[in-house]
Amino acid sequence: MFSCNSSSSNSQLQKRVESLQVQLNNVYKPGLVEFMSQIQVHHAKLWFAGKYGNWPLADFEVGEIQEALTDIPKFCSDRPEIKSIGIIDPAIDSISAAIKAKDEKRFDSSFTLLTATCNDCHKATNHGFNLIKIPETPPVTNQVFQPK
User: Fold this and answer.
1) Which pLDDT belongs to residue 16?
2) I need a surface site. Which of 14, 122, 139, 145 has the fewest CB within 10 A?
3) pLDDT at 5
């Protein structure tokens, strides 16, 4: 008869736990660079969406940036740089308000603030060599940025 208190079942359970821990340790976990690269692409797409007045797309891109910023502490808790992530919140709020208002001038100034804030964070975390700018060309050529 099987008993929960048997040393054999405890041993089997321990082996299973150890096996699952090995599997868990080998699950892909995105690093900070993957999140930052993702944010950089959405930053560029946000610019072109706003420049063409495609406010739903601009709102979507801000949401993608926010999602990545929310995920960073979950996956990169070992990185000291993440302590500075909150520096971006006022810039995100500003650009979100500009998008909601569908205000191109406000969008331009908010996007400039967002870009400068990215660079300020990079400087604060000893990554000032990673300088972000307002994009000149779309990051992808297979997306339409103009609204229908």
Assistant:
1) 86
2) 14
3) 59
